[in-house]
């Protein structure tokens, strides 16, 4: 499992978004990227986080950021999620779990005494050169945007 640190080059990836379009992190070189990982479309915490980024999307765009969400859900699930909440940013379908593994967010989790593998909620801010400038380990789903602003 990757243990990425601030200052390291962010792992590049290419995967499809909710519209079936291939999206590469390297395609955003020269821009700052908020890359956030979340467990599952259409669940309370993930809805709150996505809507918080949606509500602050124009602000971030104005500051030169692009927002990208990643989960292991498929394109169809992402499309429903995007449509339901009118999300203006890319949602990457990492069904093969290559991106979550590269970023070290595919981890063992526990619920009701059972352990299973799942996506840990984590946010990476990537600078114009493709380097990690900030990692948020404990995301406040309802205030994810403000949390980032407070840490930057």
Automatic annotation (TrEMBL):
<comment type="function">
    <text>Thiol-specific peroxidase that catalyzes the reduction of hydrogen peroxide and organic hydroperoxides to water and alcohols, respectively. Plays a role in cell protection against oxidative stress by detoxifying peroxides and as sensor of hydrogen peroxide-mediated signaling events.</text>
</comment>
<protein>
    <recommendedName>
        <fullName>thioredoxin-dependent peroxiredoxin</fullName>
        <ecNumber>1.11.1.24</ecNumber>
    </recommendedName>
</protein>
<dbReference type="InterPro" id="IPR013766">
    <property type="entry name" value="Thioredoxin_domain"/>
</dbReference>
<feature type="domain" description="Thioredoxin">
    <location>
        <begin position="4"/>
        <end position="152"/>
    </location>
</feature>
<comment type="subunit">
    <text>Monomer.</text>
</comment>
<dbReference type="Pfam" id="PF00578">
    <property type="entry name" value="AhpC-TSA"/>
</dbReference>
<dbReference type="InterPro" id="IPR036249">
    <property type="entry name" value="Thioredoxin-like_sf"/>
</dbReference>
<dbReference type="InterPro" id="IPR050924">
    <property type="entry name" value="Peroxiredoxin_BCP/PrxQ"/>
</dbReference>
<keyword id="KW-1015">Disulfide bond</keyword>
<dbReference type="GO" id="GO:0140824">
    <property type="term" value="F:thioredoxin-dependent peroxiredoxin activity"/>
</dbReference>
<keyword id="KW-0049">Antioxidant</keyword>
<keyword id="KW-0575">Peroxidase</keyword>
<comment type="similarity">
    <text>Belongs to the peroxiredoxin family. BCP/PrxQ subfamily.</text>
</comment>
<keyword id="KW-0560">Oxidoreductase</keyword>
<keyword id="KW-0676">Redox-active center</keyword>
<dbReference type="InterPro" id="IPR024706">
    <property type="entry name" value="Peroxiredoxin_AhpC-typ"/>
</dbReference>
<dbReference type="InterPro" id="IPR000866">
    <property type="entry name" value="AhpC/TSA"/>
</dbReference>
């Amino acid at each position: 499992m990757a243990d990425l640190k601030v200052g390291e080059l962010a792992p590049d990836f290419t995967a499809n978004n909710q519209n079936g379009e291939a999206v590469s992190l390297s395609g955003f070189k020269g821009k700052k990227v908020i890359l956030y990982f979340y467990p599952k479309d259409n669940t309370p915490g993930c809805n709150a986080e996505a809507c918080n980024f949606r509500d602050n999307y124009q602000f971030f765009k104005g500051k030169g950021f692009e927002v990208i969400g990643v989960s292991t859900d498929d394109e169809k699930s992402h499309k429903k999620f995007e449509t339901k909440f009118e999300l203006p940013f890319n949602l990457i379908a990492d069904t093969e779990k290559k991106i979550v593994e590269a970023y070290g967010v595919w981890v063992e989790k526990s619920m009701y005494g059972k352990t299973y593998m799942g996506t840990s909620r984590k946010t990476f801010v990537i600078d114009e050169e493709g380097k990690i400038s900030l990692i948020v380990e404990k995301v406040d789903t309802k205030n994810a945007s403000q949390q980032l602003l407070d840490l930057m």
